[in-house]
Amino acid sequence: MSDLVVDAVSVTHGSTLAIDDVSLSIRSGELVAVLGPSGCGKTTLLLSIAGLLPVQAGTITIGDREISRPGRTVAPEKRGVGWVPQEASLFPHLSVGENIGFAVPRGRGAARAERIAELAHLVGLDDYTGRAPNQLSGGQAQRVALARALAPRPDLLLLDEPFAALDTQLRTGLRREVAELLRDQGTTSLLVTHDQEEALTLADRVAVLRDGHLEQFGTPEEIYQQPASDWVASFVGDVVELPGQWRGGRVLCALGSVEASAVGFTPADGDTVRLMLRPEWIVPRPDLLAQAAAGADARVASISYAGHDAMITADLVDGPSVLLRMAAVELPEVGDDVRLAVQRPGLAFAAATLP
Ligand SMILES: Nc1ncnc2c1ncn2[C@@H]1O[C@H](COP(=O)(O)OP(=O)(O)OP(=O)(O)O)[C@@H](O)[C@H]1O
Predict the structure, then answer these.
(1) What are the boundaries of each domain within the chain?
(2) What pLDDT is recorded for position 351?
(3) Which is deepest, 144, 304, 334, 345, by most CB within 10 Å?
(4) Secondary structure of residue 317 in the 3-state scheme
(5) Residue 157 Cα to ligand 1 middle (Å)
(6) Nearest alpha carbon, ligand 1 atom 26
(7) How many angstroms separate the CA atoms of 49 and 59, rounded?
(8) pLDDT for the residue 106
(9) Is 189 helix (H, G, I), strand (E, B) or coil?
(10) DSSP assignment, residue 340?
(11) Which residues contact 150 (CB under 8 A, 6 or more apart)?
């Protein structure tokens, strides 16, 4: 398995600039998710890496092989790249075993049959190699598609929303399984998804695309805790935004004086900023009720219970409503008075940059 380097790549569809000067460097064995809203260029990026679309600028390299540059596109079958599509797209006239072995050269005698058996075992379908694709469930078909892509030992595996067509329960289980399998195999993989939870839970690093631009490339923790822009902050996860005034590394706002770091600008004392918090950074602090100086008073307005946790809307006495996410162990009740505090530094964005 090799490194993938996408260097200053631009790709157009006619007059549409779908990928605009994107650079990504993926280490050997890494699983990277490409995350972004519909139409941001995820599929276009994947197609250009697969060799199905030419690049108008920049280069794509796998290991020490340059596979794309303007005017030169190495053919898809010569790139050493595997592809797992959204729908398994198995060949209906071939057995499961023959689907898995489709890209493994014939004429190697036992070696080919061994590789098919090895892959069938890897995806937990040892007993299914003689079956026809229409005798498989959706999840099983997707495993066959994965085995088929891995069989010729690609340098890089591209997965285009491979779990999107599956129901929620199956999707959660299968994606965990697939991520483990790819890690065990040391497969360098690029997974396209518009599902932020999928990206954050599975990937070593996440590339966030917006309108063909790379907004941020970082670990799931960096993307969620230190978003590079207010757009990334609101696209990946829930946000609570409050206007406030910057004062020496803190923001004075309806939640009190909250420690914060400024993102993308250097505020001066007195500047108006937007404070951004995640709902789980705000917590009820009954211990502060006796201390008038700390925290902010609020009343619980509604509770949206989700089993493992709950989203609580609390009306601040001196300000707007805020959202809190709490583990559903000891929840307050609607109408309860609470004292809220912020348990980790927030993010301050320039007021003018917010939509
Ligand atoms: N064949 C095409 N001809 C013209 N424009 C295209 C073509 N394919 C994609 N586009 C445009 O290029 C941009 C990026 O499309 P792309 O399919 O890569 O986005 P995406 O992020 O994969 O979207 P989705 O999540 O909806 O699949 C969009 O503006 C789209 O309309």
Answers:
(1) 4-234, 239-353
(2) 87
(3) 144
(4) coil
(5) 21
(6) 38
(7) 10
(8) 79
(9) strand
(10) E
(11) 82, 119, 122, 157, 185, 187
Q: For residues 88 and 165, what is the distance between their CA atoms, to the nearest angstrom?
A: 9
Per-residue pLDDT at 301: 96
Ranges of the chain with pLDDT below 50: 353-355
pLDDT at 108: 58
Q: Per residue in 109-143, pLDDT tens?
A: 688 888 888 889 888 888 998 989 998 888 889 88
- To the nearest 5 percent, what fractions of the chain are helix, strand and coil? 25, 35, 35
CA distance 119 to 137: 18
Task: Provide DSSP, 65-91.
Answer: EEEEETTEE--GGGTTEEEE-SS----
Residue 58 has a pLDDT of 97
ipTM for the complex? 0.96
Residue 45 has a pLDDT of 96
**Residue 43 Cβ < 6 Å to ligand 1:** yes
Q: Residue 354: its pLDDT value, please?
A: 45
Please name the residue ranges forming H helices in 151-214.
Answer: 168-185, 196-202
Tell me which architecture the domain covering 239-353 has in CATH.
Answer: Beta Barrel (2.40)
| Smallest CA separation from ligand 1 atom 14, residue | 41
Alpha-carbon Rg for the chain in angstroms: 25
Q: CB of 36 closer than 6 A to ligand 1? A: yes
State whether the beta carbon of 193 lies less than 6 angstroms from ligand 1: no
C-alpha distances in Å from residue 36, one per residue of 112, 198, 235: 39, 12, 8
Run of H or E including 272? strand 272-277
Does 40 sit in the ligand 1 pocket, CB within 6 Å?
Answer: yes
Per CATH, domain 4-234 is 3.40.50.300: yes
Identity of the residue numbered 163: F
Q: Is 48 a pocket residue for ligand 1 (Cβ < 6 Å)?
A: no
Distance 324 CA to ligand 1 centre (A): 36
